[in-house]
Amino acid sequence: MDGKRDRTRILKYTQIIILGVCIVIATIVSSVILSKGFLRIAQFTKEVISVTGSAQTEIKSDLIVWYSSFSVRDNELTSAYKRLKEDLAKVKSYLISKGVSEKEIVVSQISTETIYKKNEEGSNTNEIEAYRPGQSVGVHSYRVDEVTRISRESTELIEQGVQFQSESPEYFYTKLEELKIEMLARATENAKLRAANMAKATGNTIGFMRSAKMGVFQITPINSTEVSDWGENDTSSLYKKVTAVVTVSFAIE
């Protein structure tokens, strides 16, 4: 009977030892697996390459905004307003004769300057010398080339007795939002190509894109090299250069 109890006791101890060994082995294997997993996570987190990509294109403005102004001077305010009204009719008639449509013309309110007589010291007195009312006329048109030409010829109004002043036209591109999407895609492709070439030089390849940050758009005259941290938006040139910049990070494999 005692021999049977001893064998049972030995079997029980053996099972406990085997179970302990299995637990130890399982713990070691789990630690190795977890450490490899942590290593991969660390590599995924740290091993990245960041590059800047860019894209450029040239565009022609499709909207022109052109303003001009005129004024008269008269001793009588009523007479001054009458003359200004006559000059406005001349300006509108001239623009329409050149091909500008009525709906493209924007007429501003009248502004009036009161001119006072000067004393011997050159300071203003309380005595009114004359009135100078003035008005501006704007043209907003998609016929960019035609209105540009008219703006250059508009000083012909001076020959009609109008004290006319022409401002420099402003040029805009109305499809800029659609263009931005296309430009950002091209800039991102450029960044990917740069990253791939850099990784290839060290015997690596790039993986998933980790992050992307859009830079500012630079809209400048074609031959300009000016840029700014907040972006350029040129309105002085009919033909423009658009530059898009992105900063992209890729995982390294």
Plain-language structure description:
The protein is 40% helix and 34% strand. With 253 residues, it is α+β, with helices and mostly antiparallel strands. Strands 2, 3, 4, 5, 6 and 7 form a 6-stranded antiparallel sheet that branches. Strand 4 and strand 5 (124-141) form a beta hairpin. It starts with a helix and ends with a strand. Mean pLDDT is 85; it is low at 18-45.
What is the overall shape? elongated
Number of strands: 11
How large is the count of helical segments? 4
Give the percentage of residues in beta strands. Answer: 25-35%
Straight-line distance between termini: 68 Å
Taking the sheet with the most strands, its summary is: 6 strands, antiparallel
Structural Rg? 39 Å
The helix/strand class is alpha+beta
Output mean pLDDT.
85
Considering DSSP H and I runs of 4 or more, what fraction of the residues is helical?
40-55%
Write down the secondary-structure element order.
HEEHEEEHEEHEEEE
Low-confidence stretches: 18-45
Sequence-ordered SSE layout with sheet pairings:
Layout: H1 2-46, E1 48-60, E2 63-71, H2 77-97, E3 105-107, E4 111-118, E5 124-141, H3 144-153, E6 163-166, E7 170-172, H4 176-201, E8 206-214, E9 218-221, E10 232-233, E11 239-252
Parallel strand pairs: 9-10
Antiparallel strand pairs: 1-11, 2-5, 2-6, 2-7, 3-5, 4-5, 8-11, 9-11
